[in-house]
């Protein structure tokens, strides 16, 4: 379903090769000048690990990561940069050998009561040295190390900027009215639900869209569900872009200046220029991020696709330190 972190599906030709997909997060905070992370204790196994759980059918790993964290800890989190995934052998529900693949993200707490809800009897915020000792599985220390490295590089504190290509719409050949009024088709409406789930996982609080119906309808379900104002811009439409190409770039610059978790929904002809601009914002130690953004600009985003940039800093100092492409 995505190019990074990866889709977690496989064929069923071999039971031995089956994959059990899961996802989780490493909630972090600074307390008294120290970096702390949240560990969870499972009484069934008497172990300390990260909040995580299996994907629901058809669920994207990023959505599952936020959902499972809430279900296990009662904390609402906003996903940050992806962390190394974990793979290890297990027995599946039928008792056959399988590989569990767990995708992880750094995350920050943005809400929730902290009431324990599912299979967990304790959540402990501890400093990284304590976490390193307390974790029961060596594989869980890989994510901790990546988190610490990001913090030392000054790139742990990021905010998400999601670029969305509108979902599938009624074909132009079947629409005789103003093209700006062309609606989503049934597939597109389903995709808009997936877009809403993804934007929710990244805690988007500002939603900007082309004024064309097929764009606004793609992100409207999310805006409505969160009580957010949906801001529409003619400059992000195909027609507006044809008249004044700089307007879309100006809108992107305003979002980078605000530094607020945001989504921008537009069209195939408009997005490549924005992706190229973002590609030049890749941090000096993240040339692969710039490469991926430039490749996305050349290959074109798919309809209903969400491309999430993890941004450190704002305005002229904004740097892209991570990128994910997610199909809905």
TrEMBL record:
<feature type="domain" description="Nudix hydrolase">
    <location>
        <begin position="18"/>
        <end position="148"/>
    </location>
</feature>
<dbReference type="InterPro" id="IPR029033">
    <property type="entry name" value="His_PPase_superfam"/>
</dbReference>
<dbReference type="Pfam" id="PF00300">
    <property type="entry name" value="His_Phos_1"/>
</dbReference>
<dbReference type="InterPro" id="IPR015797">
    <property type="entry name" value="NUDIX_hydrolase-like_dom_sf"/>
</dbReference>
<keyword id="KW-0378">Hydrolase</keyword>
<dbReference type="InterPro" id="IPR013078">
    <property type="entry name" value="His_Pase_superF_clade-1"/>
</dbReference>
<dbReference type="Pfam" id="PF00293">
    <property type="entry name" value="NUDIX"/>
</dbReference>
<dbReference type="GO" id="GO:0006754">
    <property type="term" value="P:ATP biosynthetic process"/>
</dbReference>
<dbReference type="GO" id="GO:0006167">
    <property type="term" value="P:AMP biosynthetic process"/>
</dbReference>
<dbReference type="InterPro" id="IPR020084">
    <property type="entry name" value="NUDIX_hydrolase_CS"/>
</dbReference>
<dbReference type="InterPro" id="IPR051325">
    <property type="entry name" value="Nudix_hydrolase_domain"/>
</dbReference>
<protein>
    <submittedName>
        <fullName>8-oxo-dGTP diphosphatase</fullName>
    </submittedName>
</protein>
<dbReference type="InterPro" id="IPR000086">
    <property type="entry name" value="NUDIX_hydrolase_dom"/>
</dbReference>
<dbReference type="GO" id="GO:0004081">
    <property type="term" value="F:bis(5'-nucleosyl)-tetraphosphatase (asymmetrical) activity"/>
</dbReference>
């Amino acid at each position: 379903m995505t190019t990074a972190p990866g889709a977690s599906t496989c064929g069923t030709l071999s039971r031995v090769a089956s994959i059990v997909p899961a996802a989780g997060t490493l909630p972090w905070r600074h307390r008294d000048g120290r970096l702390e992370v949240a560990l969870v204790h499972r009484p069934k196994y008497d172990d300390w690990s990260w909040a995580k759980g299996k994907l629901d059918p058809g669920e994207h790993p990023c959505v599952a990561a936020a959902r499972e964290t809430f279900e296990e800890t009662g904390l609402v989190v906003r996903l940050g940069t992806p962390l190394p995934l974990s793979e290890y052998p297990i027995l599946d529900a039928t008792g056959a050998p399988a590989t569990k693949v767990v995708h992880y993200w750094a995350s920050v707490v943005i809400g929730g009561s902290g009431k324990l809800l599912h299979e967990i009897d304790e959540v402990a915020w501890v400093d990284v040295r304590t976490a390193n000792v307390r974790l029961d599985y060596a594989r869980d220390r890989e994510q901790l190390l990546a988190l610490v490295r990001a913090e030392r590089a000054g790139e742990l504190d990021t905010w998400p900027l999601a670029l969305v290509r509108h979902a599938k719409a009624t074909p132009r050949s079947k629409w005789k009215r103003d093209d700006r009024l062309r609606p989503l088709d049934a597939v597109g409406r389903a995709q808009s639900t997936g877009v809403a789930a993804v934007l929710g996982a990244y805690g988007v609080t500002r939603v900007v869209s082309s004024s064309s119906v097929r764009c606004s309808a793609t992100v409207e379900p999310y805006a409505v569900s969160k009580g957010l104002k949906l801001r529409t811009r003619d400059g992000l439409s195909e027609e507006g872009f044809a008249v004044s190409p700089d307007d879309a770039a100006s809108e992107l610059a305003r979002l980078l200046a605000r530094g607020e978790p945001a989504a921008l929904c537009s069209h195939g002809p408009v997005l490549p220029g924005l992706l190229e601009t973002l590609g030049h914002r890749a941090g000096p130690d993240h040339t692969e991020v710039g490469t991926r953004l430039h490749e996305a600009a050349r290959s074109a985003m798919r309809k209903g696709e969400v491309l999430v940039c993890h941004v450190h800093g704002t305005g002229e100092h904004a740097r892209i330190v991570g990128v994910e492409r997610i199909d809905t």
